[in-house]
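Recap for those who missed Tuesday's class. We walked through two folding examples back to back. For each one, the amino acid string is listed first and its predicted structure tokens come directly after. Nothing is annotated here on purpose, so try labeling regions yourself before you check the end of the notes.
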Amino acid sequence: MRNILFVHNGATQFVRQDLDELRKHHRVTECYLRSRRMMNAATIWRQVRTHDLVFGWFASWHTFLPLLFARLQGKPSVLIVGGYDVANLPRIGYGHQRGGLKKWVSRWTMRCATRLVTISHYSESETTGNASIPQQRVRTVYIGVPDSFGSLPPAPRARMVLTVGNVDRANLQRKGHEPFVRTAALMPDVNFVLVGTWKDEAIEYLRSIASPNVTFTGRVSDEDLLEYYRRAAVYVQVSLHEGFGLSVAEAMLGGCIPVINRVGSLPEVTGDVGMFIESPEPAVIAQAVERALSYPDEARATIRQRILDEFPMAKRGELLERLIRPLMNGSH
């Protein structure tokens, strides 16, 4: 077994899954750097020196020094990118590639990495296009989606439309929370549920525009979230940017009919089983939701099977191991 330094700035589900997969084959030290104030250069230098490889999630402040020090010490490194680090969406104020110091830090972090891995082909295109990284340096390995259901939840479904995501100012448009809530007013006989932690005053704004058929749950337990996936008939994700779309994939595993727009990686996740809209306008969303509510229950099995076939957790673990092992054996 070799020693891996695993660097991240937040233990989201997909980050935690990679950590668990790597621990099946290696000794892994978790390095959680929540903010720049936590970064001690001397400590990071020593950590890199005592490990055989540095594995990081996202190109930003928290991975800059670990990957720079790995390069200076001749240690291999793997960097996962594919979110805010490679995005460039000035109209919603999102993405490190908009310019300034964050752009410089993220690009230099990517250049320091021995191998760059993206989480979708869309993220790969952003990495090469927005961040000017050569195509040959980038490889796509999809996120794995664990099956927490075991089987297709039984029908019938409630007339419930679900979306999941942190509730904050940025996500009003980036995750489509505002058009989701406004759509509810056009469908008073359907329950709309927004599951996600309330991060700032955006929840008060959404409440001010919400019709009576909208429920804001706040943060819920993992089991309660699964129950929402089991009960909902339709899952809506009308984001303006998605590096992968894990919540969409989880909802599909639970048998929800996905209503999405053709943005980011969402078409890669749903394939041809998704219900696509051309713009995140409430009237357009409402029409798509109405069609999705009329889908036959047998379609849910096909939707679930799509995720089981394309995004098994074991496949990601295997591909990451194939990538990492040669690096630690000296094949850079």
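Example two. Treat it independently of the first, because the proteins are unrelated.
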Amino acid sequence: MPNEYQFDNSNALANTLAEHVSDNLVTAINERGKAGIVVSGGRTPLLFFSALSERPLEWSSVWITLADERWVDTTHSDSNEAMVHKHLLRKSARSARFVGLKNDAATPFDGERQCEATLSVLPHPFDIVLLGMGDDGHTASLFPGSPELTRALDMQSGRFCMSVTPPAAPHLRMSLTLPALLNSRRIVLLFSGANKYDIYRRALMENGSVEALPIRAILHQNQVPVDVYWSK
């Protein structure tokens, strides 16, 4: 079962989570001289990014990448990379080493091989993987109904990233696969609102398929500890 941490407001959550994550990064740097963190897009983590960017640690030894990315220019308003540069890679964290998923290929399908090679420089296992969750139960870009979902969930695929066609959301995506997400020391699931909490509880408690609610692949595994941070 995940460890659950509930907060009455987003600011309290952001500050507590920033302290938790920075402590894990410091421990990793002390143990192996570097640390790796995977972060997710969306609006929910923005306060956390701001709080984390102010934490005093050896940021030049921290490698950051994304759980998924929309296949748009890195200056596009929908780009997760642009969001990370704006909200996280600043203040104390401006010296962190960021590795994006987007490359110059015309489509993510064309860019898979280059993306895999780029991600190979990151410290493995990751120290922290920060995930969100959609109203449809997707996490990263592992969408229910996506034609690539079964391959992206395959723990024997040997794949670190994979192109994804969302059934409804805009833009083709590049996503870390399930084996890549689980190649980590700790996973943090971050969301807000009673509706998301209901989806989380349904995914956690009901016996249902991972294909219907892909977040189940994270919640119903015993390979990596999961911390759930949520605010009302």
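Answers for example two:
The domain at 3-231 is CATH 3.40.50.1360 (Rossmann fold).
The radius of gyration is 16 Å.
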